[in-house]
Structure formats: structure tokens, C-alpha cells
Amino acid sequence: MKLRTFMMERARELYAFLASLVEKEQLPLANAEKNKGGIVVAGWSFATAWMTALLAYVTSELPSDAFDLSQYVRRVVFFGE
Predict the structure, then answer these.
(1) What is the pLDDT of residues 3-12, one digit of tens each?
(2) What CA–CA distance (Å, rounded) separates 44 from 31?
(3) Beta bridge partner(s), residue 69
(4) What is the pTM of this model?
């Protein structure tokens, strides 16, 4: 149970960082069809664990009135070896 709690906390931190970035920089909504706007979240090696946590817990662990980051994430990229 400690690992799950730890990963949920990392997911919340990453979500808060990305939401803050989008709001502060006033980034446009993602438009996948035109391959424009939004953000591309990428991680390499161990960083993919945080991205996996974000994807796993974002809908179940954040309040329903939280900033809707899904409108801004155009892609998620996992780099590995």
C-alpha cells in the first residue's frame, strides 16, 4: 500500500506541475489533427514511472473540478533502452 500511495502522490505532483505550466504560459489547447498546440509529455527510463502513475491515477485521484489537463496533452512519449 505504501508504493501505491507514493505513486499517487507523484501523479498529483506531476499533474500540478503540468497544469501550472499550461496556465502560466497560456498554452493553446491541443489539436492532434493539426499536430499543434498543447504539450507533449515525454520521459526517459525511470521517468516513465511518473508518467505511468499520472496516466493511471489522474481520473480516480483528482477532484472532478480540477483543471482539465486532458485538453492540453497532445501526446505521451515513453523513451527506453
Answers:
(1) 999 999 999 9
(2) 24
(3) none
(4) 0.85
Q: DSSP letters along 63-80, please?
A: -TTS--GGGTEEEEEEE-
- The cell numbers describing 29, all together, are 489547447
Residue type, 78: F
Alpha-carbon distance of 40 to 30, in angstroms, equals: 9
Cell numbers standing for residue 33:
489533427
pLDDT digits (tens, 9 = 90+) for 35-79: 999 999 999 999 999 999 999 888 777 766 778 898 999 999 999
Q: Is the pLDDT of residue 1 over 90?
A: no
Question: Where on the phi/psi map is residue 27: left (φ > 0), alpha (ψ -120 to 50), or beta?
Answer: beta
The residues near 38 (Cβ < 8 Å, ≥ 6 apart) are 27, 28, 29, 30, 31, 71, 72, 73, 74
